[in-house]
Amino acid sequence: MTAPSGADGMGTAKTLVLFQRTRFCEFASGMVREKFGDRVLCETFGTYQEGMGVMRRHPECVPAMLLWGDGRNHHLSNVLNVPGSVKHVFDNHGDCLDGDRLACDSHNSHSRSEGVILRVCHSLGWRTGFFQYDEADGSGVLHVSVDLDFVKGFPALPWMSVGGNDAGALHDYARSLADRYSLLRFDIGGYHEMGNPGASEMAAVYASYYEGPIRAMLPALMRQATLD
Q1: Cα gap 91→162, rounded to integer Å
Q2: DSSP letter string over 14-60?
Q3: pLDDT tens sequence across 41-78
Q4: Nearest to residue 119, comparing CAs of 98, 101, 134?
Q5: What is the pLDDT of residues 127-186, one digit of tens each?
């Protein structure tokens, strides 16, 4: 896989980092920039249509990560979809309702209609995930999508059930997926911002739940950005 070097095809190869225009996503993108510096190209958006517009400005082969907001916004992960890719979704919910409306509870059905091989994991066992839906291998290109309501104790929306999975186990298993496949897409989200969270609260949420998966997955994306 060959990716262009940077947004304009010049200079050092970069990994695209999209983030929804929310208080926490802006905070988290700042943490990513602080850690990875000029190896990432950050772009923000509000609506699904705006996110699709960002992706249309970049070739499909450019590795991309997405930070989306609370549980009502998991459907934004579909802006990263690549037909033929295998999309591993870690979520306490199936999100596979049928219908024309793209929403948080139907985005997986829409992924399948776009030619994505879908595998949904609700729980982790010893070094493995228990998946539902498609079993095909697809093209070997990997998209990992994480709704953190998968993890026990996570501050999700009050009416959404939260899973019993360990954050460290998710981190380790996500890393093992990235090592086995050509990771091209990664998205993560689910944090419910109660009121107007301060920097210390957001830093604690990021450190407890987001930092591990991002530190596992973003370097794997960067390896794709530098392949010749």
Answers
A1: 9
A2: -EEEEEESSHHHHHHHHHHHHHHGGGEEEEEESSHHHHHHHHHTS-T
A3: 999 999 999 999 999 999 888 999 999 999 999 999 99
A4: 134
A5: 566 666 665 666 678 999 999 999 999 999 998 899 999 999 898 888 888 887 889 999
Name the nearest CA neighbour of 161 among 110, 208, 77, 95: 95
- Cβ contact 15:64 at 8 Å: yes
Global confidence as pTM: 0.90
Q: Which residues pair with 64 in a beta bridge?
A: 16, 185
The β-bridge partners of 66 are: 18, 187
Say how far apart CA 36 and CA 109 lie, in whole Å.
Answer: 34
Best CA proximity match to 64, nearest among 47, 72, 45, 73: 45
What is the rounded distance in angstroms from the CA atom of residue 25 to the CA atom of residue 3? 26
Q: Tell me which H or E stretch contains 119.
A: strand 117-125
CATH code of the region 15-225:
3.40.800.10
Q: Where are the domains of the chain?
A: 15-225
Question: Counting beta carbons within 10 angstroms of the beta carbon of residue 161, is it exposed (0 to 12), middle (13 to 18) or buried (19 or more)?
Answer: exposed
d(CA 94, CA 111): 13
Structure tokens at 51: 């996110």
